[in-house]
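Please review the protein record below. Let me know how this chain folds according to its tokens.
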Amino acid sequence: MSSLAVRVPPELSARVPVEQREPGLDRDGVRLLVSRGIEVSHHGFAELPGLLRAGDLLVVNTSPTLAAAVDGRVGHTRVVVHFSTRGDDGRWAVELREPDGKGTTRARAEGEGVAGRGCGGLAGTRVRLPGGARLVLDEPLSARGERLWWARLSGAQVPALLREHGRPIRYSYTERDQPLSVYQTVFALPYADGAGSAEMPSAARPFTARLVAELVSRGVQFAPVTLHTGVASAESHEPPYPERFAVPRASARLINAARAGDGRVVAVGTTAVRAVESAAGADGVVRARAGWTDLVVTPERGVRVVEGLLTGLHEPEASHLLMLEAVAGRAAIDRGYEAAVRGRYLWHEFGDVHLLLP
């Protein structure tokens, strides 16, 4: 999929969460754009229960958001370390960034200036971290480039380091730092090994406990899955790296039952799509699976299970749009994004959301 033709004005970036924009609003106060093919309608997110039907199944990601950004130094140079993904051997994939002096840790896209840009690294680079911890870069995560490195931490355990000294990764279009609680979804669960997502599974952010209860009362079901998302590529929009995922047996049964009946399988976020499609066989049957997935969902590959998708609004050049096209088709994405810009919807993790239905 080539870049979308739409241009997203900078003022359409959501700078703070909706509940901080206007007194009395909760997380479900964002707007909801609904695409059924090329037909577009406009709603509030709180109207979601009326847009779904009994028997529909929402697949949700239970991965918690980590306070994944930690200040450090390489020699006399200040850096910010982003802890992305925990490996099976105890190492972590990390990204080194240059701080911009304003509290932000990354530039979101090209054209925003060099503040927050990646500063790469070399094998053997040593990073001093708070509390006497030391990080040593071992090798690049991928032959694709040197943005992410496998690294070993000494003098501390990563979960404890993040709890004591970390903060959520923050993009430069946001107004200020936020507490970690702002980045947790209602579906987030703690993991004993300290695993989680470097970036919030943000499509689920607008859900509240009240809204979940209303959906359940109307016969909508939920299937929890896990995908721990790593640090995205802000500048080059590269495809995702392998990530850890799990689809429990109970969730696989729920998904298969919905497909066998009249219900629609609607993924909440691109992470949920990646997890479910990684557990689906060529026959479309979902089986319990856990491990690593390198699946990239494209229009050529298509989707085997997911029929609908609830997701945020992505940048016109983002690689995630290939997945949206696989679910809904290019014409639906073009029409939806044109309507979102005309309607002054807000972009990014604190912004409005887009529901793609058959």
About this structure: The helical segments are 48-51, 158-165, 209-217, 249-260, 270-278, 320-328, 330-342. Residues 107-117 have pLDDT under 50 and may be disordered. DSSP finds seven helices and 15 strands in the chain. Residues 330-342 form the longest helix (13 residues).
